[in-house]
Structures are given as structure tokens and as C-alpha cells.
Amino acid sequence: MAQCAECKLNFSNKSNLKVHVKRIHPDKLDQLCPRKRKPFGSGAVECKECGNKFTRHGNLRSHIKQKHSDKCEELLARSNTKEFILCEECGNQLHSLGLLKKHKESHKIKTIIQIKCLLCNYVGGSRDILIAHYNNVHNFKIENETHEFDSFEAFQSWKSKMESETFSSFIHKRTNRKNQAAVKIEYYCHRSGYFKARGANIRHLKTQGSNKINGYCPANVKVVLKNGRYFANYCKTHVGHKLEEDVSHIFLMKTERDQIATIIIGSNVPLQITLNEIHFKDVSIEQKR
């Protein structure tokens, strides 16, 4: 069991906690999920004469020359003796499993990413190329806005309001951390991408169909944390789906889910009757359902 020290939510394991922190508290990742450092001696090299351990072979060689100069050649020869690991595909010999794993990447067939235009049969090699295609061929003006926030909570509040007003939803894609003071968080339209069937296909697809539009929607939000402030670039143009028709594909906000859960838990009324009351009383929830 792992608990978030910021919002006191419990998770079944540390991996789930880390995913939660990356999404909700990305600016406190190092504080809430500190990286484990290997204790000294794990993976270290040892002097065969006195047993001292060093993190690098270079440090071991310097130690041997200074402390065991009378046995320098013998000890250096023993410290340089390494076992080789054979690559089964090409016969190359490597010093470690890490190097072997990296070497094996060269044997993999690299697939070229192809992104399909949702308005014609054109296929581009990158998102930037496809956006240029939307502009030049289909006269789609890709509109961007910039916003600045004092805190991540203020950004989340703006994002929730924007999603509610535009009937859209942006999902967390990745977090790039250059250093403690520079963090980049990316969100993409939840309808962008390709539907991938999972499992044995026993269950039928949802009545309204998959959320994915089998193509690339350029709408996104990219947030950069710099010098304690959050700078958001918001690409507001959606392609391949109409926002006013996306109501059945939109998730309820967390506040709305919590509101429904509170009503259900605190009531002894049958579930269906409770849901019907919610639909009548809360217009915003009714519209999104």
C-alpha cells in the first residue's frame, strides 16, 4: 500500500502512486516519489588485494598504482579481466548485459510512423507535417493561445473550465523533466489516435463506438514549468470530429464523479432512482451524459 503525501489518496503499489503524482502533482515528483539511489558497493569494482570497493575501474586503477605498486601489473591485469557476453544474432562480444541490451536495439526493424489525414487519403511522417497539410491543402487554420498561471492548481482549474465549455477532453500524454526547474507536460485530445482491439473480443464495442477517430487531431495543451510559473500553449483547433457531437464520448469531471458517489453512498434509495434524480437536478451532468 502506498499513499500520496499531498492528497492522502491510497494506491495498491508504488507504480500507481508514481503515475498519480506525474499527472496530478508533476511539480512535486522528486518530493513525493524520490528516486532510489543504489547503495555504495552495489555494482562496484573490488580491489583483489585489500578488498576496497570503487564505483569505477579508473578509480580502482589509481588505487592499485598508489597502494599496491609492487603488485601493480598483476592486479591491473586481474582487474581488467572481464567475461564477455555473446550476441546470438551477430556474434559480437560485449562486456555487460546492459551493453548487450543496447546492442540488440540495432537488430530491430525500425517502423516508420505514418499519420493519416482525416479529411483525405494523405499520409504524413510526423504531426508537424500533417498540420502543415491541414493548413495548405484543406485551408484549416490551426489556432493557438498562450496562457500563464501562478500554480499548477490554477492551470488545472482553467483546463477543467475550458474542457467543460468546449465539450472536449485532454488526456495526459507525457511529462518531460529536463531538471528540477524545467518541466514540460503534454496533453492531447482524447479522441486522437487509433482504436486497438484488446483481449479476445468477447465483449461488443460500445454503442456510441470507440473514442478514437483513427487519425490525428492536432488539438493539444502543452505546459512548461519555468522559474516557478506555468506557461501553457493551447492548440484549440480540432479536426476529424465535431465537438457538439462528442457529448457521449466525454468523461465526467472528477468533481462531478465525486458528487454522484457522495449521493449514492449516503442514500438508501435504489441506485436507478438516485441516478434519475441526479439527471433531473444537475443540468450540467445531464448534458454530458
TrEMBL record:
Keyword set includes Metal-binding: yes
Keywords of the record, alphabetical order, are: Metal-binding, Zinc, Zinc-finger
Gene Ontology MF terms? zinc ion binding
Domain C2H2-type residue range list: 2-30, 45-73
Q: Which domain of life is it from?
A: Eukaryota
**Keyword Metal-binding recorded:** yes
User: Gene of origin?
Assistant: LOC115891570
Protein name as annotated = Zinc finger protein 691-like
